[in-house]
Amino acid sequence: MRFSAIAVAAALFVPAAADAQDKAGWPSSIKVGTASQGGTYFVYGAGWANLVQEKLGINTSSEVTGGPVQNMALVNSGGVQFAMTTMGPGYDGWVGKSPIAPGVEMKNVRATFPMYMTPFQIVALEKSGVKGIKDLEGKTVGVGPRGGTPGTYFPLWFKELGVNVKPQFGGANDLAGQVQDGLIDGFAFGAGLPIAAFAQIEAQVPVSLFAFTKDEQKKILDAFPSVSAFTIPANTYKSQKEEQHTVAMWNFGIAHKDMPESLVYEVMKVVLDNNDRMMQIHKSAADTKPENYVNNSFMWFHPGAIRYYKEKNLPVDKKLLPPEYKG
């Protein structure tokens, strides 16, 4: 079988871990929005959902979604209680410029914990001869699910760079399979490194992995203030021998504003006080640390998150305190 969906085993119910917690007003279960199978969000999100269930004794399920853009809308509407977003799509949703809900300011969403930076990269088969952005001219390129971060931004970046591509939308595993079968010419994606779907292709066929030239990187940085410069380290994949220049966005956990303060506070402790366990879920969790909360500059934090940061002596900017905060 070429690819199999990542199986995420349900964690054991451990009621003793939650005995001492104030569970007044907690829901009987919670849903965590992730992204498509084969991407880092799916692995990372399902992992921390299981860890929360294990530590807090609350039934927690991970939901496959279209990714960060859709997650903002799902949390805002209450379709899921927790999720994750990249801060580019997060900002678009916050100010009413989301491509899936134009004009809707998603102000029911609250920031919780910092996750990691999402760098963007492209994979193609080595035999295709595609080795850089310019080689994608006129070709069909997978960009992840419609409404996801890569699916939203890569088409804009290609246009900014003057490269005409035919975007193909779909889940990460599906698009990886299409690259391997020669049905599409490349797959442009963004996720924590190493990108699981890219590593799966590389394990089976020779590939070309690339990002941007320095000039291409500068053009994107100048035109899109929501991204930052990023260097993908050499040997991130077996066939990537040199550093690569790209751009990246920070990711944050998010929650609906009506989630109880005590629940969000306990979730913060589970995720941020157990970095060794988070690292076992995915290596990108190396950046899932309290001090990285400063990388949210616009979204109101949840009162439960603010309580956690205050206990760590990490002050939250007044402009990031939500209307319901009574601290």
Automatic annotation (TrEMBL):
Coiled coil: none annotated. The keyword Glycosyltransferase does not apply. The keyword Signal applies. InterPro entries: TRAP_TAXI. It comes from the Bacteria. Pfam families: NMT1_3. Keywords: Receptor, Signal. SUPFAM superfamilies: Periplasmic binding protein-like II. Residues 1-20 form the signal peptide. This is TRAP transporter solute receptor, TAXI family protein.
